[in-house]
Every structure is written in C-alpha cells, then in structure tokens.
Amino acid sequence: MSERRITLAVNGQRHDITVPVRRSLADALRQDCGLTGTHLGCEHGVCGACTVLVDGRSARACLMLAVQAENLAITTVEGLAPDAAMLHPLQQAFANNHALQCGFCTPGMLTTLVELLAENPSPSAAEVRVAISGNLCRCTGYETIVAATLEAAAVMRGEAA
Amino acid sequence: MKAPAFEYHDPTTLAEAIALLCRLENARPLAGGQSLMPMLNMRFVQPDHVVDLNRIAELSGIRVLPDGALEIGAMTRQRDIERDARVAQACPLMVEALAQVGHRQTRNRGTIGGSLCHMDPAAELPLVCAAVDAVVRIAGPGGEREIPFAEFPLGYMTPAVGPDELLVGLHVPAAPKGQGHAFLEFARRHGDFAIVAVAVLLDPGPDGRVARASVALGGVGPAPLRLAEAEALLRGTAVEDDAIARALATTASLDPMEDALVPGWYRRHLAGVLLGRALGIARERMA
C-alpha cells in the first residue's frame, strides 16, 4: 500500500509520521499522533465530531487526507487550553453550564465555536445555533451548549459572566 | 468507513494535473473533498488514483473584470466567496445561496468547482450558475474551452467535463443596476441539500418594468431547470400579483423527479410556494 512520510504541525508541535496515503487526517491524529481528543462519529462529514481547525478555520478531519495537512497548522481540542492548569474560556463555560453530557460531540463543538468567537465576539443565540448546525449532539444538550457559548463570549469580551 | 487504497498525486500546476489525468487510468480529481471524501469513505467510488488539486495555486482566487464581472477559480473555497465583498456586489444571489450550502466547516474546505462538478440535482451553486448565465472554463490536453453553463450539465450528476479535463473557473456576469434577486430553498434541516430550491433575478428596464427575468429551480429535474415560460410571462410586467400568479401557473406542468422520501407532487407544490415567495422578495429588491 502506498505510504508517505509527512510532518504534521498539530497544536504547535511537529509530528513526523508515515501514513498510508488514504488515511484521513482524523485517523492520523488519533493513531499516529496519539491525540485521541478528536472523535470520529459518522466518518462521512455529517456529525461534526471530528472538527478541527486548519489554519484557524474549522474543517471535518474525516474529510481530509492526512497527506493534505502537510504545511498547514492543525489545532485539535487538546490545543485549546493555554496550559494544563487552565481551561480555555469556552471549555470552562461548557463545564459551568453542563454543556457536555456523554462528551462525544464536545471536541467538534469546541473547535467549531472557537472559530465562531474569533470571528464574531458577540454572537446572538441564533448565530450560535447556525454555527453548530453541522454538529450533532445525540444527548440533545443544545440549549446548554448555546448558553455556555454566550457565557464564554462575555468572558472573552472581558465582561463578567 | 475508510477510503479504499489508491495512489495519491499532488501536482502544483494545472498542466501537471492534466498530464496526470491523461496518463492515469481510473483517476479522480480531488477538490475540496466534501463530497468525494464521503463517497470514498463509503466506497461508492474506488479510484486507482486520486489527483489532489489543492496545491494548484493558479486554480483559486477571485478577480473582478473591468465590466464588473467576476472570474472565480474552480478551487476557490465556498467560504471565501461567501465573505468576499466584491462577490456581494457583483452577484448577491451567490452570497445568499452560499449561506445555505452545507455548514461552515464544509464551506471552509468545499470549492465552487467541486460543487459544480459533483452537480447534485438540488445543490445551490449549480442553480446560481444556471440563473446568472455563468460561463465555465474547462481545460484539457488540447487547451481551454468555454461553454455557457446551460450546456454544462449532461445529465444526472454528470458535468460536461471529460476524464482528462478539469473545470478551471467560471465567469459570472455582473448584476445589472437595480436587479432584484432572491434565493430560497426548503430542506428538512439547515445545511442539507434542498428538497426544492429556487433562484430568481429580475432586471428592470428604463420604464421600471422587468426587462429580463431569470427563474431557475433546483431539486426538480436531474439538473437546474430554467423556467423559460415563466420568464417570458414576467417580462414587461411590474411583477404585479397577477403577473406572479401567471408565472406560478407554469409550475403546474412540472414533472419533478421522485424518490423514496419525496413524492413528485410535493416537489411541484414546493416549487410553486417557493417561487411565489422568491418573486415577492425579488420584486421588493428591484429598484
């Protein structure tokens, strides 16, 4: 089987890996880089669980080949928190608002919403809903996810939540 | 749900990509991957070679011509088109339609050329191209050719692009001054392909009446459908309610496709409802 030696830049760290060319970015992150925070649900671009940031823009990691990610900056859920002791404001707001139940959709929700908040620091609830329309939560905990996002937006704007 | 084994090629020039397509048997070009990758993962397609177009810089970008028309490279990401002020100026219909193309995560990767070549019968971008009379540029071993978008769909999910050719870009004429536009669709969930989608353009003449109308439906036929009869009925009118009613009456003769989920009569019903609404919106926007 055709393989390629590639270097991935994930969360600011270099990973020199050899992958079959057909391997998805999501599988490479999990199996070759050991970063299992990115979850795979449907593997055909519908559920949003595997969403990562590619050069700061959200993308389905199941719909990219690992070999396509060379020379691009990948951010996974592991790369959101500034350090081990502190969560990203969005992660903290998810915890505060019970915005995760089983947690399977959470990495995709977080990466998607980090992009939204970077672009739109004051989204309305309706805009948050549109932003996560491509992310399925089978616990159906959408209300708390929207509430957490609005709280995180306020915190990130420097307002008390 | 893993892609089948294939050989991977990532050319950096168009010429190199065409040469690969000429040389390789059973090769598939890979654009944004938002349709081909699911089809690979589900093994609906099993190419021996994948020719990745993502490293070909010359295929992406948006240019405004002196007459205000747009040249859009086939590999331009849908999200980049959606957010480009020049596109909002020259083709507001496209921006309105793009908000309903998949989700932000898929638009960040998905390309306009990929959408046109995949040509789902209900996809938004082919419908916009049909409505605005876009011209597509196709490159092959013999050079480039241009064809009007009306000649681009050959049938269900089949674009007029040969196995050793690539869609390289499209020409989108600038919306004339005062044009009213509207894009509406009905889908079960936000981001799904539409059950029926409608695109409407109304160009006012010097007397304020419609000089040219464009009415296009998606999700009804195997490819976007222009309603020439409705367009003719709208010409010369001020889009009064009875002119809209006459245009809507033409949808009664539609014979939409049918599938296990959506009966033909329902698509016909939706076509009438959405077209009525879209004409009302476009009328308000016509100046």
From TrEMBL, chain A:
What keywords does the record list, in alphabetical order? 2Fe-2S, Iron, Iron-sulfur, Metal-binding, Oxidoreductase
Pfam families, sorted: Fer2, Fer2_2
**Organism domain of life:** Bacteria
Domain called 2Fe-2S ferredoxin-type: residue spans: 4-80
Note whether Transmembrane occurs among the keywords.
no
Keyword Iron-sulfur found: yes
Q: Which InterPro entries match?
A: 2Fe-2S-bd (IPR002888), 2Fe-2S_ferredoxin-type (IPR001041), 2Fe2S_fd_BS (IPR006058), Diverse_Oxidoreductases (IPR051452)
What is the protein name stated in its UniProt record? (2Fe-2S)-binding protein
Q: Which organism is it from?
A: Falsiroseomonas oleicola
- Source organism lineage? Bacteria, Pseudomonadati, Pseudomonadota, Alphaproteobacteria, Acetobacterales
UniProtKB/TrEMBL annotation, chain B:
List, alphabetically, the Pfam families matched.
Answer: CO_deh_flav_C (PF03450), FAD_binding_5 (PF00941)
Question: PROSITE patterns of this UniProt entry?
Answer: FAD_PCMH
Record-linked SMART domains: CO_deh_flav_C (SM01092)
Q: Which residues are the signal sequence here?
A: none
Entry keywords, A to Z? FAD, Flavoprotein, Oxidoreductase
Domain FAD-binding PCMH-type: where?
1-177
Matching InterPro entries: CO_DH_flav_C, Diverse_Substr_Oxidored, FAD-bd_PCMH, Mopterin_DH_FAD-bd
Which domain of life does the protein's organism represent?
Bacteria
Q: What is this protein called?
A: Xanthine dehydrogenase family protein subunit M
